Amino acid sequence: MTPSLLPDDADHALLLGRLHDGTGPRVVAVRGDGVHDLRGVSGTVSELLERPDHGDLVRAAVTGAPTWRTQDVLDASLRQDRARPHLLAPVDLQVIKACGVTFVDSLLERVIEERTGGDPARAAEARALIVEALGSGLSDIRPGSPEALRVKTVLQEQGLWSQYLEVGIGPDPEVFTKAPVLSSVGPGAGIGVPRASTWNNPEPELVLVADSRGRVVGATLGNDVNLRDVEGRSALLLGKAKDNNASSALGPFIRLFDDGFTLDTLRSEEILLRVTGEDGFRLDGRNSLARISRPFEELVAATIGDHHQYPDGFALYTGTLFAPTTDRDVPGEGFTHKPGDVVEIRSRHLGALVNTVGYAEELPRWEFGLADLFRHLTATTG
Q1: What is the pLDDT of residues 174-191, one digit of tens each?
Q2: What is the pLDDT of residue 381?
Q3: Which InterPro entries match (predicted)?
Q4: Residue 276 domain-assigned?
Q5: Which of 63, 56, 105 lies closest to 321 in space, CA to CA?
Q6: Is 5 within a domain?
Q7: What is the DSSP letter of 249?
Q8: What is the pLDDT of residue 323?
Q9: Are residues 151 and 212 in the same domain?
């Protein structure tokens, strides 16, 4: 039987997504064993979320007869059977943004990448030196605080200050554009790692979904696939490290906020990761959002405001605690992906996002863009 991608309390959740029915994408809602077509409600997820009554519209839609069976859609999605209705990434016109270095554990790994120039063979030695120098006290420092400024001064005097420490404990978080509009892949799809990369990893993350006013209206899961060797060579290569074919995975659904599920619910969410390789290798990880160093509101405010607007809303990766150091092949070189790795990211309230790693150059090309979406919407609305 196909594993469930639904949240533990799916019967009480407002789940919004996108489905390809063979002719193009449709906005859908899910409740129990039914997937409901929202064609008569909205043509895009972005448009729907701009409406103040979007929750009521979804709630009303799932009371009617479903268009597809949930299990059939999940099965087709995980098998990537494109001849049947299958799930897509649950956002469409939203810009895909991301925050980096929001947890001290991953902060230290970014410093290690920088110090080793992206060379995994030097990672273990660099990790030991940096942990000895910095210790674990950074986890209790509030970014941008006077205490953080004092730590910065001490580390600068020791020659240990880093650009990653700047965004990790400095006044401003790192916010960047992860992927172009419509380029993210959904559950079951391949996720891309370029052939040239020799040190890379998944990044299991909570992704907040906001409307054009910056109001967070729901959340989903994301895999911010990262090339550690590329970013380690230079932070100016961040675009090359982060934005490749199928390097942004989102899903399975956007869970909309309601009386029983709010932003506060997510402050203690545990996001679990499992990587299973064709070589028998297994890696388990955890992203504990209670340990994030900046509140969600601060990350959102750094993304949208008088300094930057998003007329169609945005999806915001919030960073990860997880930074894999488990050796896979060569002792001291840690973890890196291999083609065929199955990556499962799961949380209690958001369900499961499952993808399989492949070479970015060999995965299906991204060919459905904004012009195609507009043509499809024009054809289906007459």
Answers
A1: 999 999 999 999 999 999
A2: 75
A3: FAH (IPR051121), Fumarylacetoacetase-like_C (IPR011234), Fumarylacetoacetase_C_sf (IPR036663)
A4: yes
A5: 105
A6: no
A7: E
A8: 76
A9: no
